[in-house]
Amino acid sequence: MNRTAIAALALVPLAALAAPAARAQDSQFGIRGLGTPGRWESVRARATGGAFTPFDAFSPLIEAGIADVRRVTAGVTGGTSWRSVEIGGTETSLRGSRFPTLVIAGPLSRRVTVAGGFATYLDKSFGVVTRSTDSLRGEPEAFTDEITSDGAVADLRLAVAARVHSRLALGVALHRLTGSTRVTAVRRFDDSASYRTSTARDDVAYGGFGGSASALLDLTPAVRLAGWVRSDTRLAADVRGRTTAEDDLPFAAGGGVGWRPGTKAVIAAAVAWRFWAGAGPDSYDTFTWSVGAELGSGTAPVRFGVRGGDLPFGPGGAAPTEFAVAAGVGRQFSSGRGRLDVGVERLERKGAGLTERVWTVLLGLTVRP
Predict the structure, then answer these.
(1) Could you give phi then psi for residue 56, rounded to 5 degrees?
(2) Could you tell me where the beta strands, DSSP code E, fall in the chain?
(3) What is the 3-state secondary structure (H, E, C) of 272-341?
(4) Residue 29 is part of a domain; what is its CATH number?
(5) Which of 7, 159, 161, 326 could lock 115 by a disulfide, CB 3.0 to 4.6 Å apart?
(6) What are the φ and ψ backbone dihedral angles of 351, each rounded to 5 degrees?
C-alpha cells in the first residue's frame, strides 16, 4: 500500500476511540434497554432506505461486498439529527450529531480483499428527568431526579472477502465491541434549605465479541442476491474494574435482492431479523424491511427509498415500530477518485404513548488515493 493508504489505516483506532465520546441525544426508545441499535449503513445505502446495504462495500453490515473493491478505498459517514419527542402531551426537541461508520478496504491479492473500520453498535446517550415524593423525618418531601448517560458501544470490525467464482463472493469478519458511558445521577429537593443536592457519577466500560459471515451471488448479470448472519457474545459492563452486568446480544440474519433493469437504474429490497428478546425485560425480537432505488449515471445518481419494522426495546408489552422515507444524491469528482454523498431521512417511531419524529441530514465521503 502507498503512504496515503497507510496513513488512512492509522486513523481507524483514533476514529474508533472518538466514536463513543460523541455527544448526542439518542432515541428515547433505547433508555429502558441496552441502548439504541446503530445503523450499519453508508449514506448511499441509507438514502435508499437501507435497501442497498447488503450490496454496498462501505456499509459495515456485510463482508462479501468488499470483494469488489480493487483499490485501497476509505469511506466515512456523518449525520446530524433533529428529534421531536412527544409523551404525555408534552413535546421536547433534541439534537445530536454522530460519525456512525468508517470503512477502509483494499485488495490483498487478485481474489482476496480485507477491510477494517468501525460502526456504532449501541447509542447510549440520553437524559431523563423525573419528579417524585418520599417520606423523610415523617414529612413528605418532593424532589427531582436527573439521570444522564453520555457514550456508546462501538463495533470494531476486521473483515476478509474472497471472490471464489465469477458469480460468487464470500466474506467473514471478527468484531470487537468496546466503548464506555459516563452516567450521572442528581437529586434536587424542593426544600433546598433542609436537604442538599446529591450527585453520583460512574464510568461504565463495555466489552464483547462477535462474528459474521455473508455471501453475494449473481444469478444473472442483472440480478444479485445477498445473505448474511451474525452472532455476538454477551455484552459485559464493568464499573471500576468489576463486572456489574452481562447481557445477551442477538443472533441476526438477513438478505436482499438487487435488480439492474438498465444501465441507469438499480432497484433493491432487503430484510433482517434480530433476536433481541433475550436481552432482558421489555426486549423484543425485531423484523425490518426496506425498498429503494438509484437512478441516473454513476457520476451523479439520485436515490430514494422507504423502510419500516420493529424496535428492540420499549415498555407496553409490544415492540415499538418505525417507518422512514429517505432520499439523496451523489457526485463523483477527481476522475472517480472521490465521491460525495448527501442524504436526508424522515423517521417516525411509535410505542406505548411515546412518539419520536426525526429529521436526519447525512454526509458521506469516499476516497481512493
Answers:
(1) -105, 120
(2) 36-37, 73-87, 90-107, 112-123, 126-136, 139-165, 168-189, 198-220, 223-232, 235-239, 242-247, 251-262, 265-275, 285-295, 302-310, 321-333, 338-351, 354-367
(3) EEEECHHHCCCECEEEEEEEEEEECCCCCCEEEEEEEEECCECCCCCCCEEEEEEEEEEEEECCCCEEEE
(4) 2.40.160.60
(5) 159
(6) 170, 130
State the pLDDT confidence band at 282, using cuts at 50, 70 and 90.
confident
Size of the chain in residues = 369
- The dihedral built from the CA positions of residue 55, 267, 119 and 7, taken in this order, carries a sign that is positive
Q: What's the number of domains the chain is made of?
A: 1
Distance (Å, whole) CA 137 – CA 144: 18
**C-alpha distances in Å from residue 220, one per residue of 106, 114, 150, 223, 225:** 26, 26, 48, 5, 10
Residue pair 80/360 in contact (Cβ under 8 Å)? The answer is yes
Q: Which residue matches cell numbers 496513513?
A: 7
Whether 30 and 36 have beta carbons less than 8 Å apart is answered as yes
Find residue 14's DSSP bridge partners. none
- Tens digits of per-residue pLDDT, 164-208? 999 999 999 999 999 999 999 999 999 888 889 999 999 999 999
φ and ψ of 195, to 5 deg: -130, 130
Domain range enclosing 108: 3-367
> Of residues 154 and 4, which shows the higher confidence score?
154
Q: Give pTM, 2 decimals.
A: 0.86
8 A C-beta contact, residue 104 and residue 115: yes
Neighbours of 271 (CB within 10 A): 16
> Which pLDDT value is given to residue 259?
97
Radius of gyration of the chain (CA): 22
Q: First-to-last CA distance in the chain? A: 10
Q: How far apart are CA 358 and CA 347, in angstroms?
A: 5
Does the structure show a pLDDT above 50 at 1?
A: no
Is-contact 355 92, C-beta < 8 A? no
φ and ψ at residue 269, rounded to 5 degrees: -140, 145
pLDDT of 141 over the 70 cut: yes
**Interatomic CA distance for residues 198 and 351, integer angstroms:** 33
| C-alpha to C-alpha distance for 247 and 125, rounded to whole angstroms | 18
